[in-house]
Structure formats: C-alpha cells, structure tokens
Amino acid sequence: MSEIRGIPLLSGPPPPMDSGDACRKCGKEFNVILNRSRKCNHCGYSYCHNCTDYQALMPRSGQDGHGLMNVCGFCIEFLTITASGKGQLKTMPLSKLKKYVEVYNIKMQRAVEKDDLIDGIMEAKKWTGCLPPENENYYRKYSVPDKSGSGTRPRGFFSRSGPSSNTPPAPPPRPPSQRPTNNFARPDLAPDNPPYQQHYGYTPQYPPHHPQPQYHTPPPVPPRPPRPPQPPRQSQPYSYPPPPHAQSNPPTPPQATRPQHGAYPPYQRPSASRSTENLRNPNARQTPPRTRAASAAPPATPPPPSLDELLDMPPEAMASLSIGTLKAILFTNHVNAGMILEKGELVGKVQVLVDAERRDRERQRALEQQEEAERIEQQRVQMEEYKRIQREREERIAAEKRRAQGQDAEDTRKSTDDGEAGTSDAPAPPLPPKTRGTASDLERTGLCVICQDDEANIAIVDCGHLAMCRGCSDLVMASSKECPLCRTRIVTEARLLRIFKT
C-alpha cells in the first residue's frame, strides 16, 4: 500500500443495503454509546468505526470536486487496485489480481500471462477511472464477506442477551459463471472460482459415454471384481480418500457414470490400490517409509596453510593446492590477487610470498645472531672492565696500607702519583643510550613504527603509509583498526597490502 500514491475514487453513493446489528468485518455488536455503526460508501454495509477508518474520494452532488468519504477495510484493497495504473498493477502479485477479477466478475476473453490480466482490468475501467455499475453491484451482492453472522462474535456490555430479530438474511448464492471455460491456455493463471464448480458437475441427461469432468469433487470408486477370500480385516469402517495429486489432476477420467461390468476396464489408482492391499493383508511386508533427505550442512572450510607449513612444503605440493586455498593464502597474507586468472600465476604469487618470507626469516635469524654476538662481546668487555677496575681498586688499597705503615715521603709521593694516575685512568661514565627516532623517521628508515624491530612490509591502501610489519598488522586489526601514523580507519583486512622489497 505504500507504493500507491493518492486516494482511490468512488463512482457514487452506494445503493441502500440491509444493515445488521454487528460489524461485518470484526463482528462487534453496535450500541449507541460505545460502538456506533458507520456505513461504507462503496459496498453500503454497516461497520464499526475501526473497520471503516479508510477514506476515498466521492464526487459531490450538484457541484464540482470530490469529498472524502469513509470506506471499509474490505473495499479499500480493491479500490486501491482500481485506482492503480498499469505500472503499479505489474508490481502486484498475480493472486491479488486474480482475486480482484473474481470479486468484480470482470469478463476476461483471453488471459495467458499476467500482462493479459492487467490489460483486461484496464479495459474494464470507464473513463472516470471506476468500474461499471454492473461489476460494482456484483461485488456488493456476492463478494463482500460477512463475519457478523457467525455465532462466536464478541458481545459488548450493552449487547442484547437474546437473539437478534433483525438479523440480515444470508446473501444469495452467486449466479453460474457465463465466462468460457477453456479460454485460459495455462490453468494455473485461470481465476479461482470455487462457487462455480457446481456448473461443471454431473448432469443425468448426458449419455454415459460423455461424462462431464469434475475438477474438485473426488470421483466415486468403481465396483471391484470379486476377489478370493481374504483374512478378516479390522479397519473396514474407515475409508481412505485418494491422494490429493489424484484429485486435482483435470485430465483424470471421471468415474461418475459407473460403466457396466465389461464395458470399460475399471480405472485403478496405484497409490490407492497399494494402501488397500496393505489394509487387507496386515501380515504383508511393510515397506519402510522413505526418510526425507536432510539438508546436509556445508562442510566447514579448512583454514589455509600457515607460512610455517608453506616453508616446509615442496613446490610440487604447493602446486597441487586448490585455487580457493591459494587465494585464501594470498588474502590472509595481504597479497592482492584480484586480476589473476590462471592457477599458475596464483602458484607463482604464493611462491614469491614464501621466498620473501624465507628471506625475511633468514635476515631476522642473521640479525638475531649478530645481536647475540654483540651482546656476548659487550658482556666480555664489561667483564674485562670490571676486572680492571677491581684490580686498580686493590692496588689503591695496598698503596694506602703502605702509606699508613709509615713509609717515607718519597714512597708517599709516589703512591700519591700512582693514585692520581689511577684516577686519571678511571673509565669515563657510559654514554646515554641512543634515543629512538620519531615515527616518521622510523618510517623513512624502513622499520615498523610499532615494534621498531622488524622491517615494515605492510602498506595501508587508504593513506599509503608503509609503517607496519605483518605481526603488528594483525595486532592493529584486532584492536584499533587505525593507521599508527595518521589514524586513518582501516575497514577490512583487504585494505592492507603486502609489499615485497627487492
């Protein structure tokens, strides 16, 4: 309803109709205090105010223009279809259009597709945009539902306890359809009109060899030929109707005329005969019911091999991986594989990734070995320095002892000179550690600005900064998802690009 623009049109005031004591839509009884009745200006029946809370335009009598009038919830749906254009009718479901054609008894000369129904509806309208009076009168007389006649409608506080004396009479039955029966090339597009099926029923004046088809009434079962005596069955009082697919098939030959024995072979349905045989022979072997195939859940996709596994994998095994696995490996390691069409190119990309990772690890291993060697050398130098200081301290203590024992002035002077020489040879204080540069300096040097240890090989596509290593990029995507330099938002891992340095 939200796609429809404007308010539907009414052709004019409805004819006077019998008004009941309850709403035809919700079944609430009318009273003068809490639930007053209001007439629908399309079908003419009485409803409560909640069920007539819809509006349509009716031409004013004696002057130009239109006025807003109330209509019921039944009529507003069909008035909206009447006011719709051809483009809006194409957006509506086919069942809704077929129901509209049926309730207004619109004659359809040919309806094969949905566009044929729409053309028929557009041709049925007058120049005013409304349907002819005979269609609207048919709708008022036969198609307006009446829920007030059911015995289970809610009763209000002021409702009468006894039965109502002015209950409207039941609507008359619909007249037999005059439309041709075989105009629709496709039966699934034919309008559904169950009340008209009596018109196609069996008529006794037809000869037996020309039976009339019955579409919805199940045909009676023909008499069976005598059978040999069977064991007594316990389910004789129960009858089993034929399956639904045997009832709804129009080409099924009818059995309404009951041909004489020997004239025609009796028509037997396989499903019905099988069930009858099973009922007559309880000891027969029962066929187990066919179990419905459960929708197998899709198997979980195995994770792609890690870089550690790829480093130990020979090139032949790497080439035997599937295309999906190769693409997953490249995506996990932030390598762009969008324009690759051949599997050989994917394998080459993965091989380049593995070679670069192997070189990085060898370089990292060499750096670690160099750092370990430097650390050992530094410890050795520190140990030698410590021994030298310790030795000089012992010498100074020995000189002080000799001076305390009353050595002569020359010895004292010499020891003093030695002490001054020892003081001058004292090691200089260690230099303060070299401060690390800023993030921009580290970016220019090629180191990761986060850990400042590994080489930066992950670039951010949105801002263009090459500032992170692979390990730190995983930490950033798991936490802030921002560039460590400019704080640009990283939406997905696809915005990270691995850079290979040659």
From TrEMBL:
Domain FYVE-type residue range list: 17-80
Record keywords: Metal-binding, Zinc, Zinc-finger
Region (Disordered): 142-312, 398-439
SMART domains: FYVE, RING
Basic and acidic residues: compositionally biased ranges: 398-417
Protein's name according to its UniProt entry: RING-type domain-containing protein
Composition bias, Pro residues: 166-178, 205-256
A Pfam family hit: FYVE
